[in-house]
Design brief:
The chain is of the alpha/beta class. It has 13 helices and 20 strands. It has 2 domains: 3-107, Peptidase S8 propeptide/proteinase inhibitor I9 (Alpha-Beta Plaits, 2-Layer Sandwich); 113-491, 3-Layer(aba) Sandwich (Rossmann fold), CATH 3.40.50. An 8-stranded mixed beta sheet has the order 8-7-11-6-12-14-15-16, with helices on both faces. Helix 3 (60-70) packs across helix 4, helix 9 packs parallel to helix 10 (303-313) and helix 12 (446-456) packs across helix 13 (485-491). The longest helix is centred in the C-terminal third of the chain and has 18 residues, at 423-440.
Length: 497
C-alpha cells in the first residue's frame, strides 16, 4: 500500500489518535503508532521537505532513541512528559511509527488568540469588570495569609501570548519579573530549549506586531492606574508579578507548548534559584487565551494536555479562554484543551456586564458553547469578557480595532488604553482571581481552587438553564455562572480586619 493510501485509510477508518490496525492481518505489517489529526494533515499536504513532529515515548529515552534511529533533527525536549520535538521527513515519520517505545506522533497546527470584534451596543469608558466579579470589594475588604491586602501579592502569573509592553504604565515598578520568547521554528535558533530570555524592559508585543498579550496581562495583573480623564483601571490582581512568554502574533501549537514546557520546568523559581521569592514569586497560574478556531475534539494524548496535567500535579492552575465561536449547543465549539476534566484546568466563558458592573447580564453571544448532550465540553465558569478596558496602544494592530481608545496618565500615554472583547479577556479575569485565592490560602491545590470558584459562582439567569452535573449546577453556554471573587476568597479563609 502506498504511504498516501495508508494515511487516507487511517482517516476513513477513524483510527487516528489511539486506534489500532486490527482489521489488517497480523502478518501483513507491524502495529503502527497512531498519528494526531494535525500530523495526518501535514503528511497529506507536505512536499518532500521536513516538518515539525512531536515524538511521544513511553519514556523520554524511548522518544530520544526513536528520533536518533530515524535520523530526525531534534529541536527541543519536553523532558517531564517524554516528548521530543524534531524536524522530520515523511519517510522518517513512517519509520518512527514502528520504533519501540513510541506511543504517539503529533504534528504542529495553527492556533489563534481569542479576541472578538468589539461592536456591541454598550461600550464603556470605565473599568467595571471588577464590580461584576466583586474582585474590587474583595481587595478592599479582605486580607491574605501573608497579612497583606488581598491583591495577589506573593504570586506570579504566567501569560502565554503575543508578548508584553513592560514600558506601559500598567506594568511600571518592576511588574514584569521575566520575559521570554519562543523561537522553536526560527531557522536561526540555536537554543535547544526553544525559549530565549528577553530583557524585561523590551517590548516583545510591538516586536511581534501584537497588542493582545499586553491587554490580557493588564486584565490579570495590571497595576491600578488613573487615566487622563480621572477614571481608574486596574487588573484583577494588581499585586501579582508577571512572567511573559511571547509566542509572536501568529501562534502555532509548538510555540505555545514550548512555552508551557518552560513554565513546567521553571514555575518554582521563575527567575532562577538565586533570586528570592519575595522578588520573583513562584508561578501559580497560567493564562492561555489561544486555541484553534472552531473548537475541536479533546485529545488526551496531546503534548498540551500532558503538559497541563503535569503542571496541575505540581500545583499550577491552568486557565483557558473557551473560544469565540458562539454556537447553539448542537455541537461543541469550545477550546479542546479547555475540555480537560482534570481539577485545576478551567475553561472560561465570556459574560457581558453591560458596561455598568451588572451581575445579571447576558452571556456573550460570541462565547463558545459546548454541545448540550456532553457536559465535558461545557465551560467551567464565566467572567467579564465584553468591552474590557485594558492596556493597549492604539498603533498596534489588534488595539486599533478597539472602540474607545483612552489616554494614560503621562503626556506620552496617548491612546494607551482601549476596549476589547473576547474570551481572551474573560480568561485573565479568572487568572487574577486565582492569584487572590492563592494569596488567601497558599496551600490550596489547583483542584481546590477550581472547586471553590465553581461552588461560589453566581448563577446569573441569562442563557441556557442550569443542570446538576458532577456536584454543580452548570450549563452548556456559561458553566456554573459568574465568578464571585469575594465569596471564593472568604470560602478559602480570607478575612477582614
Amino acid at each position: 500500500m502506498s504511504r498516501r493510501g495508508l494515511l487516507t485509510g487511517l482517516l476513513v477508518s477513524g483510527l487516528i489518535g489511539g486506534g489500532t490496525l486490527a482489521a489488517m492481518p497480523a502478518s501483513a505489517e507491524p502495529a503502527l503508532v497512531p498519528l494526531s489529526p494535525s500530523l495526518v494533515g501535514q503528511l497529506l499536504s507536505a512536499s518532500s521537505g521536513e516538518m515539525p513532529v512531536m515524538v511521544h515515548g513511553a519514556t523520554l529515552a524511548d522518544a530520544e532513541r526513536a528520533v536518533s534511529a530515524t535520523g530526525m533533527q531534534r529541536v527541543t525536549t519536553f523532558r517531564k512528559i517524554g516528548v521530543v520535538v524534531a524536524q522530520a521527513t515523511k519517510q522518517q515519520v513512517d519509520a518512527a511509527r514502528t520504533q519501540p517505545g513510541v506511543t504517539y506522533l503529533e504534528g504542529d497546527q495553527p492556533i489563534a488568540v481569542h479576541a472578538a470584534p468589539s461592536a456591541p451596543p454598550q461600550v464603556t469608558t470605565r473599568s467595571t469588570s471588577l464590580l461584576a466579579t466583586r474582585g474590587l470589594e474583595a481587595r478592599q475588604t479582605l486580607f491574605g495569609a501573608n497579612g497583606a491586602a488581598l491583591d495577589g501579592s506573593g504570586i506570579s502569573i504566567a501569560v502565554i501570548d503575543s508578548g508584553i509592553d513592560p514600558t506601559h504604565p500598567a506594568f511600571a515598578g518592576g511588574k514584569v519579573v521575566r520575559a521570554l520568547k519562543s523561537t522553536c521554528l526560527d531557522d536561526s535558533n540555536t537554543d535547544t530549549s526553544c525559549i530565549k530570555d528577553v530583557p524585561t524592559g523590551v517590548d516583545t508585543d510591538t516586536l511581534s506586531l501584537g497588542g493582545h498579550g499586553t491587554h490580557v496581562s493588564s486584565i490579570a495583573a495590571g497595576r491600578s492606574v488613573t487615566l487622563s480623564d480621572g477614571t481608574t483601571v486596574s487588573g484583577a490582581a494588581p499585586g501579582a508579578k508577571i512572567v511573559s512568554l511571547s509566542t509572536g502574533a501568529a501562534v502555532v501549537i509548538l510555540s505555545a507548548d514550548s512555552s508551557l514546557n518552560w513554565v513546567l520546568e521553571h514555575h518554582a523559581h521563575p527567575c532562577g534559584d538565586a533570586v528570592p521569592a519575595t522578588q520573583c514569586p513562584p508561578i501559580r497560574v497560567v493564562n492561555n487565551s489561544y486555541g484553534p478556531q472552531g473548537g475541536g475534539k479533546f485529545d488526551a494524548d496531546s503534548a498540551t494536555v500532558k503538559l497541563q496535567r503535569q503542571l496541575v500535579k505540581e500545583g499550577v492552575v491552568m486557565v483557558w479562554a473557551a473560544g469565540n465561536d458562539g454556537g447553539d449547543g448542537s455541537k461543541s465549539l469550545t477550546n479542546p484543551p479547555a475540555q480537560d476534566p482534570t481539577g485545576g484546568i478551567i475553561s472560561v466563558a465570556s459574560y457581558n456586564d453591560q458596561g455598568n458592573g451588572s451581575r445579571n447580564g447576558p452571556v456573550s453571544t460570541f462565547s463558545s458553547r459546548g454541545v448540550k448532550s456532553d457536559p465535558s465540553t461545557w465551560p467551567d465558569i464565566s467572567a467579564p469578557g465584553q468591552n474590557i478596558l485594558g492596556a493597549c496602544r492604539a498603533y498596534l494592530p489588534i488595539c486599533s480595532t478597539g472602540l474607545k481608545p483612552q489616554s494614560g496618565p503621562g503626556i506620552l500615554d496617548v491612546g494607551s488604553y482601549n476596549v476589547l472583547s473576547g474570551t481572551s479577556m474573560a480568561s485573565p479575569q479568572i487568572v487574577g482571581i486565582v492569584a487572590l485565592l492563592f494569596q488567601a490560602d497558599p496551600t490550596a491545590t489547583p483542584a481546590e481552587i477550581e472547586k471553590v470558584l465553581k461552588s461560589t459562582a453566581l448563577r446569573y439567569s441569562n442563557g441556557a438553564p442550569y443542570q446538576q452535573v458532577g456536584g454543580y449546577q452548570t450549563s452548556f453556554d456559561k458553566g456554573t455562572g459568574l465568578v464571585d471573587a469575594l465569596a471564593a476568597a472568604k470560602a478559602l479563609g480570607a478575612h477582614g480586619h
